[in-house]
Write a structure and sequence with these properties.
The structure is a single chain. The protein is of the alpha/beta class and about 260 residues long. The protein has one domain: TIM Barrel. It is built from eight helices and eight strands; from the N terminus they run E-H-E-H-E-H-E-H-E-H-E-H-H-E-H-E. Strand 1, helix 1 and strand 2 form a beta-alpha-beta unit. Helix 3 runs parallel beside helix 4, helix 4 packs across helix 5 and helix 7 packs parallel to helix 8. The longest helix is centred in the middle third of the chain and has 21 residues.
């Protein structure tokens, strides 16, 4: 049965971050995800989750100076210390917020040494992060990002990313299947969902090509939802899209999956 989660870094953005929890709860979501909660104390964020009956499915580890274009550290040999500190902080927050999964971003590797050096440091960093997360009972999520939106990102295609993950030999590191990024870079969505069953631990959705609501653009999300259901995937699908207007006004497509009508 399809379940969805509101990405509070992209939905309800006409409100301050802490007010978005109330908006998500009122709209009928029972689960949320977001990128970076680190500007707010854990107890404050936990209170917002609890008072709205919300579960938290995913956070990102700190990824550097976002406004300056940084997108994580895992594959950047020059950022080893920053990487470990980011994972430590993310584990503290995930544990305190009852979140089972951390998206660890690989980074834009322009200006770093050759690809082999980046792969080597990525592997070493992710093994360390996986072991740290496992000690806390957490999973690590690895997501390829499309090269149109994030040029120079270390991983852009699913199959090479999966090969890197498998090379880690860590059971708590799984692929993050973002339908938007995957359609742009790889396509063949339905067969990928079926073929990669068991390899992904988190899923995100958006319309393609403009990253608006899932009922816009070139993809048939009824078929995509059915494909995930057939695989037995039971995690929430993260709504990581840019609403065309007020978030609530674009939730008609989501009505069957919400606690209350949008």
């Amino acid at each position: 049965m399809t379940r969805i989660a509101a990405n509070l870094s992209m939905l309800f953005t006409d409100a301050p971050f802490l007010d978005r929890f109330d908006r998500a709860g009122a709209a009928g979501f029972d689960t949320v995800e977001f990128l970076f909660p680190y500007d707010h104390p854990i107890d404050v964020v936990k209170t917002r989750l609890d008072r709205n009956g919300l579960r938290l499915s995913l956070i990102n580890a700190p990824a550097g100076d976002w406004t300056a274009g940084e997108r994580g550290f895992a594959a950047r040999p020059s950022k080893r210390a920053e990487f470990r500190a980011s994972v430590e902080q993310a584990i503290t927050y995930a544990t305190g917020l009852g979140c089972p999964r951390i998206h660890v971003m690989s980074g834009i590797t322009a200006g770093e040494p050759d690809r082999a050096a980046c792969e080597a440091v990525w592997t070493e960093n992710l093994r360390e992060a996986a072991d740290m997360a496992a000690s806390a009972g957490l999973f690590i999520s690895i997501e390829p990002l499309n090269s149109r939106d994030v040029p120079g990102y270390f991983i852009a295609h699913q199959d090479p990313t999966l090969a890197l993950i498998q090379g880690l030999d860590r059971r708590n590191v799984l692929l993050q299947f973002d339908v938007y990024h995957t359609q742009i870079m790889d396509g063949d969505i339905i067969r990928r969902i079926e073929r990669l069953k068991g390899a992904y631990g988190h899923v995100q959705i958006a319309g393609v090509p403009d990253r608006h609501e899932p009922d816009t653009g070139e993809l048939n999300y009824a078929e995509i939802f059915a494909a995930f259901d057939r695989t037995g995937f039971d995690g929430p699908l993260g709504c990581e899209y840019n609403p065309r207007g007020r978030t609530e006004d674009g939730l008609g497509w989501a009505a069957p999956y919400l606690r209350t009508p949008a």
